[in-house]
């Protein structure tokens, strides 16, 4: 009886806990890279995809301010209080620790009171813009796993841009725009993450949600990572398998949450009114008390540990991989091309371990049949099959049937061993696949995210619209590369300002902005049908102007009364000509 009561209480507790917990404490099942299992052949290693645990990444970053001397206190200056913008007796002095506000205070531990914060110089050089770039660098590729949270000690800025870099700060892309008036500041319609969907989750938006001017009770700005995850994993992130499946098969989605650097561009401080109070410029400045960035080292699902040594983050690679991001195979483990691990199939994923090179095995693999040269493949012109090999000094190409080496995921049962390159490649890949192991899709096909790699339907035809796409190829998620003015996954839709006419063509006219003038009518958005007396793209010109005959007796552009008056004037000038010298 007691046991049954205990089990009932335990089940109730599990149910209540699952309801109360808004987000899962542990993401997925990728915290182990390998485990020993028992098989008919004895104890062997079972490899699986793995990744480091999510953590606070601000402990490992380097911060840089631009301009470098923008921090307040050198020379000392006074500024206005946060709660009362007209009480301007606060002091910032870099030489006094109690009055200094250096950049590292954006990342220290925040207790209850008082808050420590970085602060910029005041807007004493108005109307010159008060702008600051705060760059956060990790010198390592990281994957974001939670919202980026910026807590301002001043009012939240009127205009700000959050940017990201994937190449260590060489190039930058916007992550999100923030403004009190998006249309005025960035020429963008205001949106929030709630306005997005699975299909538009990568859209760069401008939000007015976090820019409410000088308000002491509203200090926080978010970049919503989890809300974007929720489009795939559900509102409480319960279905992480769906999210991992999308991240695994959609490179653009995976890259969206991957960074090497972040940059906060503060473009205009909190003003709170329409006009800047030039008599109290000490009211205007930036102050940030805390920045939170949670994520993990990107190790391509080949490591669970990322170490911080000599001010540098490095993955401790498993699966016979190496490199800062476990991005290549170790020496003597290059029996097949390096590949990142895969989240699929859930829950263990696929390790895609690097296997020993053939030369490192000790004895050459056994082959059922050895071909003396390329011409034995019964091809009239061997150069058409392998021009690189035909031109090199390859001594033999061997057809391998060894199970370990001939891995083609069921899309071919024949492999070739290239002696010079010391590698094995699949021959005659079927099911629209290609690659050394038939692991890629042919041009014009893309990976079916719902199919396993050994499925006959793993590659789906792109079906790019030939009139709207640049070519018939698509990316890994099935999106085609569209011509100018064209959009949609298959390039069969037109962007605003364009209409479909054997492909998307720019609108010459419409009934909204590009009106036909002088009584012309718009025909299919491609041309204006003009009255007889007018011409031009929008019927904006008199036809006689092009012929240069508007002043002649053609009658175009002149009234009958004007023509008679002109004739009378000519007659009078003719009779008066003898009096003119």
TrEMBL record:
Cystine bridges: 462-474, 482-491, 530-539
CDD domains per UniProt: EGF_CA (cd00054), EGF_Lam (cd00055)
InterPro entries: EGF, Laminin/Netrin_ECM, Laminin_N, LE_dom, LMN_ATRN_NET-like_EGF
Domain Laminin EGF-like span(s) in chain numbering: 462-511
Annotated ranges, domain EGF-like: 505-540
Subcellular location(s) per record: Cell membrane
A Pfam family that the UniProt record links to this protein: EGF_laminin
Superkingdom, natural source: Eukaryota
Coiled-coil regions listed in the entry: none
Signal sequence interval, chain numbering: 1-28
Chief site of localization: membrane
Record-annotated Laminin N-terminal domain positions: 46-296
GO biological process: animal organ morphogenesis; axonogenesis; synaptic membrane adhesion; tissue development
Keywords recorded for this protein, A-Z: Cell membrane, Developmental protein, Differentiation, Disulfide bond, EGF-like domain, Glycoprotein, GPI-anchor, Laminin EGF-like domain, Lipoprotein, Membrane, Neurogenesis, Repeat, Signal
Protein name, UniProt field: Netrin-G1
Organism: Sapajus apella (Brown-capped capuchin)
Lineage: Eukaryota, Metazoa, Chordata, Craniata, Vertebrata
């Amino acid at each position: 009886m007691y046991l049954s009561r205990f089990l009932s209480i335990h089940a109730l507790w599990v149910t209540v806990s699952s309801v109360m917990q808004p987000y899962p404490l542990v993401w997925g099942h990728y915290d182990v890279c390998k485990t020993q299992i028992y098989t008919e052949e004895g104890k062997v290693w079972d490899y699986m995809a793995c990744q480091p645990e999510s953590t606070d990444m601000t402990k490992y970053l380097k911060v840089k301010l631009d301009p470098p001397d923008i921090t307040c206190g050198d020379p000392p200056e006074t500024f206005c209080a946060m709660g009362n913008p007209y009480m301007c007796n606060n002091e910032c002095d870099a030489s006094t620790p109690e009055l200094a506000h250096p950049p590292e205070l954006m990342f220290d531990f925040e207790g209850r009171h008082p808050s420590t914060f970085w602060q910029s110089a005041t807007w004493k050089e108005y109307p010159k813009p008060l702008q600051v770039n705060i760059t956060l660098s990790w010198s390592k590729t990281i994957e974001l796993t939670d919202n980026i949270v910026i807590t301002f000690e001043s009012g939240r800025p009127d205009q700000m841009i959050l940017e990201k870099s994937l190449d260590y700060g060489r190039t930058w892309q916007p992550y999100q725009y923030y403004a009190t008036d998006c249309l005025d500041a960035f020429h963008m319609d205001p949106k929030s993450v709630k306005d997005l969907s699975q299909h538009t989750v990568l859209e760069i938006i401008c939000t007015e949600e976090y820019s409410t001017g000088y308000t002491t009770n509203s200090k926080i700005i978010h970049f919503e990572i989890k809300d974007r995850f929720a489009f795939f994993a559900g509102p409480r992130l319960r279905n992480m398998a769906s999210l991992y499946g999308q991240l695994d098969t959609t490179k653009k989605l995976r890259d969206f949450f991957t960074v090497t650097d972040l940059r906060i561009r503060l473009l205009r401080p909190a003003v709170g009114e329409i006009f800047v109070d030039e008599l109290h410029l000490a009211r205007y400045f930036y102050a940030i008390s805390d920045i939170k960035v949670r994520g993990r080292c990107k190790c391509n699902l080949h490591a669970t540990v990322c170490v911080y040594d000599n001010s540098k983050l490095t993955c401790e690679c498993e699966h016979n991989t190496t490199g800062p991001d476990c991005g290549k195979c170790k020496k003597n483990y290059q029996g097949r091309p390096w590949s990142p691990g895969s989240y699929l199939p859930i829950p263990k994923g696929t390790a895609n371990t690097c296997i020993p090179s053939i030369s490192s095995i000790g004895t050459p693999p056994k082959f059922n049949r050895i071909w003396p040269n390329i011409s034995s493949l019964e091809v009239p012109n061997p150069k058409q099959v392998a021009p690189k090999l035909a031109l090199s000094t390859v001594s033999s190409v061997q057809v391998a049937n060894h199970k370990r080496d001939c891995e083609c995921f069921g899309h071919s049962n024949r492999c070739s061993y290239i002696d010079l390159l010391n590698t094995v490649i699949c021959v005659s890949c079927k099911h629209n696949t290609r690659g050394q192991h038939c692991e890629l899709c042919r041009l014009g096909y893309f990976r079916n995210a719902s199919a396993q790699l050994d499925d006959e339907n793993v590659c789906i035809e792109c079906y790019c619209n030939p009139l709207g796409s640049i070519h018939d190829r698509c990316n890994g998620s099935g999106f085609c590369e569209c011509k100018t003015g064209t959009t949609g996954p298959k390039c069969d839709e037109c962007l605003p300002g364009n209409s479909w006419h054997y492909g998307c063509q720019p609108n010459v006219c419409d009934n909204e902005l590009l009106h036909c003038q002088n009584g012309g009518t718009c025909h299919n958005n491609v041309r204006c049908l003009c009255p007889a007396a007018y011409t031009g793209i929008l019927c904006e010109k008199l036809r006689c102007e092009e012929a240069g005959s508007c002043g002649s007796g053609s009658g175009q552009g002149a009234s009958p009364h004007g023509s008679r008056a002109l004739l009378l004037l000519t007659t009078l000038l003719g009779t008066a000509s003898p009096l003119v010298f």
